[in-house]
């Protein structure tokens, strides 16, 4: 009885937090210009499949502090670029029984332009794969090397480097054809309530975006900035790691990074940002 009383009290507190928080619009006129040259749009018309639930879609960059936004505008100051620099070394490193490197098959890393923009996507066997799956498939099947952990430092380095090649290119995930079934499952998960607090992704990022909850300015949860350097973690944070953190915050039991469920959710969340460009390595609080 005491446990149930505490549970309902927690739910009530959470509901009060979301309903009474102050509202703060995204920055009205900030422009994301990298190195004074590359203009990256941070606002766009919402994709049709959203059915008008959002009047406009906004990059999470618009919801951050002035200081955080400035970090992303300068590659020298952006701490995420250190991971991409290490990724350049790993790109050239021959490994495994085949003694092959990424460069041996793919050439210069610039050949990866556009890859991040279409991820996740259905592979030739009809499976929905994230970028990490493709990387590990190359390592195990072509290089004869060990697979990297989803959140390992080598994986963060190389996914950061590859993502950077698509910076400024529009998000272009496919949600029809073979991808449709996965997209529908991801959409269902987005609106499913999790944990003791019984919160869904939509409760925060669709119903309450723009509000301040404690010290956090809730964004629309767009994924075009991932992988992102999160100041709170002092590291690159992949999208699935953020998914897991969100479910943890609902006091629920999370799926594993790289799981089928998270790949499907990744596809749906990515599709909500159709119209926004890839930000490469973004910076968030």
Offer a concise description of the structure.
The protein is α+β, with helices and mostly antiparallel strands and 285 residues long. It is 38% helix and 9% strand.
Task: Provide structural commentary.
Heterodimer of SoxA and SoxX. Heme c 2 binds at residues 201, 204-205, 246. It is an enzyme of class 2 (transferase). The chain folds into 2 domains: 44-76 and 169-284, Cytochrome c-like domain (Cytochrome Bc1 Complex, Chain D, domain 2, Orthogonal Bundle), CATH 1.10.760.10; 81-164, Cytochrome c-like domain (Cytochrome Bc1 Complex, Chain D, domain 2, Orthogonal Bundle). The protein has helices spanning 2-20, 66-72, 81-92, 102-106, 131-143, 153-164, 180-190, 201-205, 239-249, 260-272; strands at 32-34, 38-40, 43-44, 57-58, 121-122, 128-129, 212-213, 216-217, 228-230, 235-237, 282-284. The chain is of the alpha+beta class and 285 residues long. The chain is built from 10 helices and 11 strands. The protein starts with a helix and ends with a strand. The strands form 5 sheets. It has a 3-stranded mixed sheet with strand order 10-9-11. A two-stranded antiparallel sheet has the order 1-2. Strands 3-4 form a two-stranded antiparallel ribbon.
Report the C-alpha radius of gyration, rounded. 19 Å
Summing up helix and strand content along with how strands pair, one would put the structural category as alpha+beta
Helix content: 25-40%
Number of continuous helical runs: 10
Write down the CATH topology of the largest domain. Answer: Cytochrome Bc1 Complex, Chain D, domain 2
- Highest-level CATH class of the largest domain: Mainly Alpha
CATH superfamily of the largest domain: Cytochrome c-like domain
Q: How does the overall form come out from the CA principal axes?
A: globular
The helix-strand sequence is: HEEEEHHHEEHHHHEEEEHHE
Termini separation comes to: 39 Å
Into which percentage range does the β-strand content fall? 5-15%
In round numbers, the mean pLDDT is: 91
Give the beta-strand count: 11
């Amino acid at each position: 009885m005491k446990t149930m009383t505490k549970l309902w009290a927690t739910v009530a507190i959470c509901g009060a937090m979301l309903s009474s928080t102050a509202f703060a619009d995204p920055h009205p006129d900030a422009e994301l210009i990298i190195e004074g040259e590359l203009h990256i749009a941070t606002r766009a018309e919402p994709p049709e499949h959203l059915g008008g639930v959002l009047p406009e879609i906004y990059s999470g960059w618009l919801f951050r502090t002035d200081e955080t936004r400035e970090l992303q505008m300068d590659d020298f100051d952006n701490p995420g670029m250190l991971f991409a620099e290490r990724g350049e070394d790993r790109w050239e490193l021959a490994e495994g029984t085949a003694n092959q490197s990424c460069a041996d098959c793919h050439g210069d890393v610039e050949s990866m332009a556009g890859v991040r923009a279409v991820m996740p996507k259905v592979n030739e066997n009809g499976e929905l794969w994230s970028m990490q799956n493709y990387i590990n498939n190359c390592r195990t099947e072509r290089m004869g090397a060990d697979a990297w952990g989803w959140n390992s430092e080598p994986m963060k380095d190389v996914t950061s480097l590859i993502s950077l090649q698509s910076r400024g290119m529009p998000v272009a995930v496919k949600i029809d054809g073979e991808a449709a079934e996965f997209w529908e499952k991801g959409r269902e998960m987005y609106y499913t309530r999790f944990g003791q607090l019984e919160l869904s992704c939509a409760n925060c990022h669709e119903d309450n975006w723009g509000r301040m909850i404690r010290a956090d300015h809730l964004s629309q949860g767009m994924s075009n900035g991932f992988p992102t350097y999160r100041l709170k973690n002092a590291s690159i944070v992949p999208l699935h790691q953020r998914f897991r953190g969100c479910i943890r915050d609902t006091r629920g039991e999370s799926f594993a990074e790289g799981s089928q469920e998270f790949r499907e959710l990744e596809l749906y969340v990515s599709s909500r940002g159709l119209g926004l460009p890839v930000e490469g390595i973004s910076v968030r609080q």
